[in-house]
Amino acid sequence: MSVGLLIVTHDGLGAVLLDSARQALGRCPLRTEVLGAGAECDPEDLYRRATGLCSALDDGDGVLVLTDLYGATPSNVAERLVDSRQDRRLVAGLNLPMLIRVFNYPDMGLEGLVAKALSAGRDGVLQVAGAAA
Questions:
Q1: Which domains does the chain have, with CATH numbers?
Q2: Contact, 42 vs 26, CB < 8 A?
């Protein structure tokens, strides 16, 4: 068994990030589903679909939910998924380094994957060149 991964983002962002991570790694080592929220989506419908995906992804080790922008509809729906649940965690601010780092530790437990996601999200954002502000 392993942790399931649900990616909930605006429109097709999650699918593009997942495809990029698969290309970089040559595989997708975790059971993963993507749910995109279009501009006209019904949050209740999105929540019902996300709930079903979480249930399908959970083999007993829990589900990590990654979302793009904290406070937006995808994040708000995802937050409802994890409220009062011991077997689900949410990390907002999804980026490609975060997703690749999570995929590099497919045997890690839920809490460990949360820590990896957070550290990769922070460590993957840096100024590479140019004058400092």
A1: 4-123 (3.40.50.510)
A2: no
Cβ pair 61, 30 in contact under 8 A = no
Average pLDDT in the chain: 95
Single pTM value for the model: 0.94
**pLDDT tens digits, one per residue of 35-77:** 999 989 999 999 999 999 999 999 999 999 999 999 999 999 9
Q: Give me the torsion for CA of 121, 84, 108, 90, rounded to 10°.
A: -20
User: Between 1 and 46, where is the model more confident?
Assistant: 46
